[in-house]
Amino acid sequence: MTTPTGSIRQGRQRENILRALEMQTIKYLCSIMPGWVTSDMLTALGFLGSFIIGLGLYLGNNWKIWLLLSVFGFMVQWFGDSLDGRLAYYRNTPRKWYGWALDITVDWISMCIIGFGFFYYLDYYRWIAFIFIFGYGWSMINALLRYRITDKYSIDSHLMGPTELRIIISFFMILDIFVSQTLVVFGFAGSVILFFINLTDTIKILKLGDERDRVEKEK
Asked: To 10 degrees, the CA torsion angle through 159, 161, 164, 166?
């Protein structure tokens, strides 16, 4: 059974706070997207957004006003990253496994690029950038493990999704222009929170794996 034209569903479980508004916005943008725009173009655009974010952070180490460039980069990244796969579903031309593999790869490389930007911006607190990249990588592994065990793929951590995270980081970037060390505090607190979220998710995934083992042995 094929996905009907006009649908933007991708089979992902979404739990994020802004999911309803985000889905309405994405569907509208898909409906007005020029025919020559492809999903791969949007993926490349989202990837470009990651470079813009990293560049803004790098330049912001000397002139904080450049953090606004990173905020713009998050907008570009959201546009490309959120619409690439959904545009394919909207046009009834999805490549599920190709898109999934490309999405995971681009997300990881993008996170490393942004992480290097934070590395240069945080100056004496650069270790926070390494911890954040470590935590993000762990969360990606958890998502893949959960998908393998439950056959359900989710990119959200409870009520927090990529969109909410972009908005929160952008808010603290703007605040850091006026209040020094804001991003340092946010980066440290966010890394600690992410660690405990990942630890909790890992424990749950191990329990799901143990339960699936028992079910398969009983068959």
From this structure: 160
Q: Which residues of the chain have pLDDT under 70?
A: 1-15, 156-159
Write the Ramachandran bin of 5: left for phi over 0, alpha for psi from -120 to 50, otherwise beta. beta
- In the prediction, which pLDDT does 15 show? 67
Highest CATH level, class, for 19-218: mainly alpha
* Residue 58 to residue 74: CA distance in whole angstroms: 15
Phi, psi of 130 (to 5 degrees): -65, -40
**Residue 33 near residue 41, CB atoms below 8 Å:** no
| Reported pTM | 0.85
Q: Where are the domains of the chain?
A: 19-218
- pLDDT 10s digits, 9-51: 555 566 678 788 888 999 999 999 999 999 999 999 999 999 9
Alpha-carbon span 95 to 88, nearest angstrom: 8
Sign, Cα dihedral of 182, 187, 188, 193: positive
Q: Which string of DSSP letters, residue by residue, matches 70-81?
A: HHHHHHHHHHHH
Which of 64, 101, 109, 71 has the alpha carbon at shortest distance from 84?
101
- pLDDT for the residue numbered 124: 81
